[in-house]
Amino acid sequence: MSPFERDPFARFRNATRARIGLGRAGDALPTSAILDFQLAHARARDAVHGHVDFVALAKQLAPVPTVRIRSRAKDRTIYLARPDLGRQTNADDLPNPGDRYDIAFIIADGLSASAVEHHAVPLFKACMKRLGGFSIAPVVLGEQARVAFGDEAAAAFGAEVAIVLIGERPGLSVPDSLGAYITFRPQSGRRDSERNCISNIHADGLSYEVAADKIVWIVREALRLQLTGVDLKENAEGAIEALPHQEA
């Protein structure tokens, strides 16, 4: 009997991270499957409750200047219970208005500290290699921050485009996935429909190089067309195209 006949799901496991064909031991799952699930769940919880070492992150980004800005959520417990506070900056941390910039990067902890610590700096550096000719604001390190936090932070630098690199909500197969959100003319009150998102940036997902290509494509189109969001689409062939703006 061939291995595939003994275990018909074996060929599919090589093509997916999904838990399929786990088998059974009596009326329950095998012990190995249960332990694997518990480990995945623990890793996801650790990612959500973890804390980004922003001091180490700033050192990795050097000599690029950084500024640390907190949200109005004072700790992780409040952050998880009050998403609205994570979307607002602590006004005392905002820099005084000065030079204006084309682009502001915000590295925010979001819902996965491990995603930020593993992937944010390499992705930022990959983007910077492709952004010659643009003025870049000091990198904002956002603590207890959600996506909309980047609107106020980038607006403080007068940035035309905000790029938020943030830890995505972890799953039971990937606890360290990073997302990138691009918003044209960021300001408080921007809707999610006014952003573009590149997600699933991690070791088994989108590579830094491919993600950076997509991010920079969107940035260039955003500045050319003066928009981001649902009117700026990526077609099936992988190129990004702008759709005609539809008035509400």
TrEMBL record:
Tell me if Lyase is a UniProt keyword of this record: yes
> Which is a Pfam family this sequence falls into?
EutC
Report the enzyme's class at the first EC level. Answer: lyase
| Entry binding sites for adenosylcob(III)alamin | 147, 168, 197
Q: In which pathway does it act?
A: Amine and polyamine degradation; ethanolamine degradation
GO cellular component labels:
ethanolamine ammonia-lyase complex; ethanolamine degradation polyhedral organelle
Any one GO molecular-function label of the UniProt entry: ethanolamine ammonia-lyase activity
Cofactor note text: Binds between the large and small subunits.
Catalytic activity reads:
ethanolamine = acetaldehyde + NH4(+)
What EC number(s) does this enzyme carry? 4.3.1.7
Keywords in alphabetical order, please. Bacterial microcompartment, Cobalamin, Cobalt, Lyase
Tell me the domain of life.
Bacteria
Q: Which GO terms describe its biological process?
A: amino acid metabolic process; ethanolamine catabolic process
* Compartment annotation: Bacterial microcompartment
- Function comment: Catalyzes the deamination of various vicinal amino-alcohols to oxo compounds. Allows this organism to utilize ethanolamine as the sole source of nitrogen and carbon in the presence of external vitamin B12.
Q: Which NCBIfam families match?
A: PRK05465.1 (NF003971)
Family (UniProt): Belongs to the EutC family.
- Protein name per the record: Ethanolamine ammonia-lyase small subunit
